[in-house]
Amino acid sequence: xxxxxxxxxxxxxxxxxxxxxxGFIDAQRGVTEVETQREDAIVHGKRLYAQYCVQCHGPQxxxxxxxxxxxxxxxxxxxxxxxxxxxxxxxxxxxxxxxxGRPSNQPGIEMPHWSVNENGPLxxxxxxxxxxxxxxxxxxxxxEDAASATDLSAELPEYPGFTGKDRVSKVKExxxxxxxxxxxxxxxxxxxxxxxxxxxxxxxxxxxxxxxIKDPKAMPATQRGPNLWLVGPTATVPAPAGVPANxxxxxxxxxxxxxxxxxxxxxxxxxxxxxxxxxxxKARTSTK
Length: 288
Fold this sequence. Notes:
Elements: H1 2-52, H2 54-57, E1 77-78, E2 81-82, H3 90-100, H4 124-136, H5 165-177, H6 180-183, E3 185-186, E4 189-190, H7 206-214, E5 228-230, E6 249-251, H8 270-281
Antiparallel strand pairs: 1-2, 3-4, 5-6
């Protein structure tokens, strides 16, 4: 009888230990599956970010036309550790903003409605992937998926106040030599890493462009991207027909976060800088 009791107790202990071990293994399997799904989403999100978002938010999420996305408070983890400063509302805010877009009063600029539910090109799974990348991904790896520049042989557009094929051709030679068109689109050709410059004269003055090109990293955050709204009369050439005259950038009361730009300082002479600035300051196509 005593042996039977001992055997029963032993079997009960073995069964209990088996259940505990199985539960632990199953829990670990669940964690692994969640981590794997997240990693897959991050990889997919990185590709989508490089395709749809990089021109406005920068190849490192630092902010360009739109505000910075590489914000510490939006990261649930930093270096594998829980982020004590994480904003719990970040995930929903990012997802909803991507889905629904945001307006802007700068000519030709707005945050598009990306969701298929808003007549955009992205489904919820794709938007979830971009959100996962913004929150967990490595910003230094976006450039891996950035598209190469195309149609570099295309002629640059002529603009009112800057005409003449010889002068426009000289500008193109400079932009190619300095590598500008590897990142920036202008007219029919160029890259898709930096902001499209085809209509930049509708958003920025010659003074602003000169300061930016000479030393991009020295530009204060309050004078970048969405922190500049268009008010007052233009100080440059008259606007083409149909384009509003209030084209001078001025600081907005609401300061959007902008982090250190990816754009390098490109060495050039004053003569080269003058020509590029003159051309870009007159680059206007917008009728908004």
